Amino acid sequence: MFPENFLWGGAVAANQCEGAYNADGKGLSIQDVMPHGIKGARTIRPTEDNMKLVGIDFYHRYKEDIKLFAEMGFKVFRTSIAWSRIFPRGDEAEPNEAGLVFYDDLFDECHKYGIEPLVTLSHYETPLYLSEHYDGWVNPKMIGFYENYVTTVFKRYKDKVKYWLTFNEINSILNSPFMSGGINTPKEELTESQLYQAIHHEMVASASAVKIAHEINPDFQVGCMILSMPVYPLSPDPADVIQAMEESHLHDMFTEIHVRGEYPGYMKRYMREHNIEVAFAPGDEEILKNTVDFISFSYYVSVCATADEEKNIRGEGNLLGGVPNPTLKASEWGWQIDPKGLRYILNTFWDKYRKPLFIVENGLGAKDELVDDGKGGKTVNDDYRIDYMRDHLIQVGEAIEDGVEVMGYTSWGCIDLVSASTAELAKRYGFIYVDRNDDGSGTLKRYKKKSFGWYKEVIASNGGNL
Ligand code: BGP
Question: Which of 73, 237, 302, 456 has the maximal Cβ count within 10 Å?
Answer without folding.
Answer: 302
